[in-house]
Design goal:
Sufe protein. Chain: A, globular, SH3 type barrels, single chain, Serine Threonine Protein Phosphatase 5, Tetratricopeptide repeat, 4-stranded antiparallel β-sheet, alpha+beta, 17 helices, 479 residues
Length: 479
């Protein structure tokens, strides 16, 4: 090939490379332009507030929007319109939006009836618990066996730093001993008074219980007491249900605490049938029905919860009757039957404590019933607030509220932003046995964007008080 041919080919190659570069540049610019021009999703509330975010899904009841790194749920009946992938559609008519299609006379009458103010609180479909993926008994057994053979992941990172005055061979203080003195010598008293009120020490407290268990091999009764409390620590403090189940199984079967505790573990690990089998054993146990009612409610078995609760109300008086009425009210509320819930709550105020033949015992029980009457009154108010709650009408800001807990007032701060609950913080409390309520209840309120929560087992009073405090803050914010 001559020089002319080589030069010509070289020139053609350069021109083709130049054209290719220009073409690639055009494609890149077009891609960037298209990406930049992609409209952002947006939801518009009936109140007039708009909120940008990525629409994740829309169901018959809620719309899920990702704002930043967080997903939030908003009730569909609060939404005016939604823009998704550049397409806007109206969800609920308002203002000057296009008129709805014509209805026949029957439909118009039904629509008018819906718009008229309700004289009483009617039943609404309750928000059914999310269906858990059912875990087979075989897989639950595998988890328990694995927990039995292995130390917790955190074990080596937690140091056992306890007072030298503690006697690790003597677990529990004798009855009647001064609480402060007992906490200096007996591990159980130390854990209840110093460890449980401080979540940062929970793992250390569990490690302390294990050390005491090792030193009690020759003391069968003390070993049983330690395992019972250790099972409760794993379940209520650390939510380590597999290890809790292992220790419950080491205890004598048949008692209420053991069977129900083990049932709780089975339910939390994913098998409600295994849990219900154990709960059913104690449906008619005097004085314990309220606990069973709450557990059936949490499982979504509302009919069974109310059946057991009603039997207890009929056969009891005083404290047991008051606590059973409260539990029935909570079950009806979870089912969305707000009218029935309020009926149960209002019955609590009529509960009286007969003379028990012991002045101190009678006085103490009446004091407890008075606290339950207060809880019932607050619960009824919270039901009515849930009916009227409209977050879209609350201006952005931080609102404070408080409510009576078991040990005193619980104070909270609620942050509202863009018609949604951004954050809930417990700022002050005097509770001691609140377990995970201080973290779990605020998280549920933010997740559910409202006052519907599952109370923390064994910390019902603290759980209810946090909800009531948040309700008081929102109630004030709506004025």
């Amino acid at each position: 090939m001559n020089d002319f041919s080589n030069g010509f080919l070289s020139l053609m190659r350069k021109r083709m490379m130049k054209r290719k570069s220009i073409l690639l540049g055009c494609i890149l610019c077009l891609t960037l332009f298209t990406t930049a021009a992609t409209p952002q999703d947006k939801i518009e509330f009936l109140s007039g507030i708009s909120m940008p975010g990525k629409v994740v899904k829309i169901t018959d009841e809620v719309i899920v929007v990702k704002i930043g790194s967080r997903e939030r749920e908003f009730p569909l009946d609060k939404i005016y319109a939604v823009t998704q992938d550049g397409k806007r559609r109206v969800i609920n008519e308002k203002g000057e939006s296009p008129a709805p299609p014509k209805r026949d006379k029957v439909e118009a009458k039904e629509e008018k009836a819906k718009e008229e103010p309700k004289k009483t609180i009617a039943k609404r479909p309750g928000k059914k618990p999310k269906k858990r993926k059912k875990v087979s008994p075989r897989n639950i057994e595998k988890r328990i066996k694995k927990a039995e053979k292995n130390k917790p992941d955190w074990w080596d990172d937690v140091k056992l730093e306890v007072p030298d005055t503690l006697d690790l061979t003597a677990w529990r203080a004798p009855s009647g001993m001064d609480a402060k003195e007992a906490a200096e010598k007996f591990p159980s008293s130390y854990i209840w008074s110093k460890v449980i009120p401080n979540p940062d020490l929970w793992k250390m407290g569990v490690k302390l219980a294990h050390q005491c268990l090792k030193k009690s091999e020759s003391n069968a009764s003390q070993k049983t007491r330690i395992m019972a409390e250790l099972a409760g620590y794993y379940k209520n403090l650390l939510n380590d249900y597999a290890r809790a189940a292992h220790y419950y199984r080491q205890l004598p079967a048949g008692s209420f605490g053991v069977d129900v505790g083990l049932g709780d573990c089975y339910f939390e690990m994913g098998n409600a049938d295994m849990a219900a089998e154990l709960y059913k054993k104690h449906e008619k146990t005097v004085g314990r029905d309220a606990d069973i009612v709450r557990r059936y409610t949490k499982m979504g078995e509302i009919k069974q919860a109310l059946k057991v609760g009603a039997a207890m109300v009929k056969s009891s008086d005083g404290r047991d009757k008051a606590i059973s009425l409260l539990a029935c009210g909570d079950a009806a509320r979870a089912d969305g039957d707000y009218k029935k819930a309020i009926e149960y709550y209002e019955k609590v105020k009529d509960v009286d404590v007969p003379d028990r033949g012991d002045a101190k015992k009678t006085k103490d029980e009446r004091s407890r019933v008075d606290r339950m009457k207060h809880r019932a009154k607050v619960a009824a108010r919270m039901v009515k607030l849930r009916e009227a709650l409209d977050l879209s009408k609350i201006p952005d800001g931080t609102y404070s509220g408080k409510a009576r807990g078991y040990g005193g007032d619980i104070e909270v701060e609620v942050v509202i932003k863009g018609g949604a609950i951004e954050k809930v913080n417990v700022t002050s409390h005097k509770e001691t046995r609140f377990y995970t309520a201080m973290q779990s209840i605020p998280a549920q309120i933010v997740q559910n964007q409202g006052l519907k929560v599952d109370a923390v087992t064994s910390a019902t009073v603290s759980s209810d008080a946090i909800v009531a405090a948040v309700g008081a803050a929102l109630e004030e914010a709506m004025k």
